[in-house]
Amino acid sequence: MQCHKISLAISVALSSPFVLAESSNFEESVENIVVVSSRIAMPLREVATSISVVTEEDLAQRGYVSFVEALRTQVAINTSSSGGIGSVSSLRVRGEEGYRTLVRIDGVDISDPTGVQVQPQLAHLVSSNITRVEILRGSQGLVYGADAGGVINVSTGRQQEGMFGSVTAEAGRYKSRNLSAEIGGTSGSLEYYISAADYSTEGFNARVSDTELADNDGYDNTTIHTRLAYKVSDNLHLGLVARTNDGEGEFDACGFGDSFTHLCSSDFHQDNVRFHAEYEHGDTNHQVALVKTLVERENFNQGIASFLTKGFAERLEYIGNAEIGDNSQLVWGFDWEKEVISTANQGRIQKGYYVEYQSEVLSDTFLTAGARYDDNEDFGEHLSYRLSAAKLWSLAEGELKLRTSYGTGFRAPSVFEVEYNRGPFAFAPASETQLKEEQSKGYEFGVGYTNDQGSSYEIVYFDQKIEDSIFFDLSGFSGYLQDIGTSFSEGLEVIINQSLADELVLTANYTYNDTEDTSGEQRLRRPKHLANIGLSYSLNRLQFTANMRFVRDFTDIGGELPNYDLVDISARYQVDDNLLLFARIENAFDTEYQDLAAFNTSGAALNAGLKYHF
């Protein structure tokens, strides 16, 4: 196991970056360290769960404005949106619903407590100023919560001595415009980082049924993100993260009867604040955080307010870890969370406690065993757990890794789901259904090889099951029903990262996902075959990147949707040490396709811009 001080430094820098890098060796180590599996720093080679890492260079090469679009290039991830950027978006990891995936930005949980299900509003998340993404695939999010079927851990800025910053400007089709800036640095014991992004587009006609008006559905987004860190002493560090996200969008098909129209709009506002303190004592580290989330959402029908939702979440988190001997450590913690929909006077409290033991039981053999106890105010007590193991073998020019993990969890019906069935808009059978918690479990086996030149290859088999999943009655629109029985996602992941030459790099992934609901039918909006092939070619100051995406065998309400292939191409030219020019064509061959049966998607879109950094 890695020594405690290095582990602590990297953990702090990546999970809630509040401490400065102290040496160049620290910065070199970061690339091979992840925190998403257990919320503490761990060498990636020792981790037995499935983790994807997206670096700042990966994001810059492809250049997507939408964070959802950037994630689509990763293995086992499928997304669907009801239109362009800013429209309602869903992200599924290994075929499971987006509300089972947690998203944290610099340690801040950005879940919306007022939603139908408590989940992040990914439609309003732009990729500007994001420097690293770690994705935990599968139902293995024990330390984040029993309902965390997957976790996306996002970092912004960087740890760097002195002051740094950048300004980026971009424009493209649909009269889109994207402006962003960042500045960060250190001053004595204080570290600071501030970023801002402003995006707008006139969009395109999002709804297939909008044939008469056929208006464009535009979107505007402003995001401001700040984090501060103060080193009180060698053992005590304080930090603050504050984030504001505003989104204004137009959409189609709202209202009923005579009030039905395609002239609809929405306003979204979310504030997040996280105060963090960390204390190190010997071989033990303690972190405590207070988090507050405020959300306000409002829809408008032809400019007249028709639906307003306000709410908040309050969270207290504690996590500790300590070395036990030379080869083991213990991780433990608790969380207390209150979710409230204030416009409906509805709320709930849930408490959780967890512990995980990590050990190198034999040379290059790593085991973890963890358990979590949750007490939900409405749905009682639940116990979940996670077990994992990894074995490494050194080969002539690389390392072979065999790993496996198993995890369980549960999700209580959201406040909205429960209260809707009790409200005036529900009727039988939903009004007569007493919802209960969903249960989940999943396991995986993986084998991977990494050579000394940095190329890597991995194959993973996964099997995930959901018991008694909750769904909205799309046939009778009566409310929320319980799908009694087992739904599952089972499949295979193949991941390749290969240097073909000094200037040419291949990245590829393929996901086979066989899904079934309780009636034996393929689950909606879950392609059986997903693949991405990326090529990056560098020539002096010029770099070209292409990503090809293949989607096969998927269904939506009404039946099967056509297979499709998408090609995105981008180029970057480094004019000098400070100035970068870039351009990209999304959907380069103007493919007509759908991710949802009722909605259109973007045609070929050219975007270009520049970035000045110092």
TrEMBL record:
Pfam families for this protein: Plug (PF07715), TonB_dep_Rec_b-barrel (PF00593)
Domain TonB-dependent receptor-like beta-barrel: 203-587
Entry annotated with the keyword Transmembrane: yes
Signal sequence, start to end: 1-21
UniProt xrefs under Gene3D superfamilies: TonB-dependent receptor, beta-barrel domain (2.40.170.20), TonB-dependent receptor, plug domain (2.170.130.10)
Keywords: Cell outer membrane, Membrane, Receptor, Signal, TonB box, Transmembrane, Transmembrane beta strand, Transport
Superkingdom: Bacteria
InterPro entries recorded: Beta-barrel_TonB, Beta-barrel_TonB_sf, Plug_dom, Plug_dom_sf, TonB-dep_rcpt-like
Residue ranges of every copy of the TonB-dependent receptor plug domain listed in the record: 44-150
Cellular localisation: Cell outer membrane
Membrane topology: Multi-pass membrane protein
Family statement drawn from the similarity comment of this UniProt entry: Belongs to the TonB-dependent receptor family. Hemoglobin/haptoglobin binding protein subfamily.
Protein name: TonB-dependent receptor plug domain-containing protein
Organism: Agaribacter flavus
